[in-house]
Structures are given as C-alpha cells and as structure tokens.
Design a protein that fits this description.
The structure is a single chain. This protein has three helices and no strands.
Length: 93
Amino acid sequence: MSKANLTGVIFAVLSLIGFTYFMVGGTHFSIQQWPVEAYQGLVFSIVWGMGVSPTIGHVYSALIVLTLVIVSFAIGHKMARLLSNNNSIKKNS
C-alpha cells in the first residue's frame, strides 16, 4: 500500500470519527454505541425532515456516509501526493 493510499484511509477513518462525534458527542450513550446512534440519528433526520419512508432514509443515509468516506479518502490521497511531489521537487533542486 502506498503512502498516499494509507494517508487517504487515515483521512477517511478520521472523518468518520469526526462525523460520529458531531452527531452523538453530547449523548449519554457509551462510545461503543456511537456509530450506530450516529447512523440512526442521520436516518431519523432524513425521514422526519423530508417525510420519506424509512427504507429511503436508510438508503440516503448510507449514500451520505459512503460519499463522506470517498471524498475524505480522495482529499487525503491528493494531499499526500501533493506533499510528496513538493518534497521530491525540493530534493531535486
């Protein structure tokens, strides 16, 4: 696994942790229950806010989480590649 891919995975995991904390950081649940509660809170917000069926709410929530992971990975991967290119340019100069 390249350094850029590893950095992308780290960014994706950190973004999921940040999203989870944002959704349920102030609740009384234990930390082990936070991911499930964050997802269920997102489903509830979509179902209640948009008035769609719970099945559609789960699909939308899954797509939102998937998009968050993909975009975070892409940002981390791109940043690692830019930083490694900058370092190789400085070394060659």
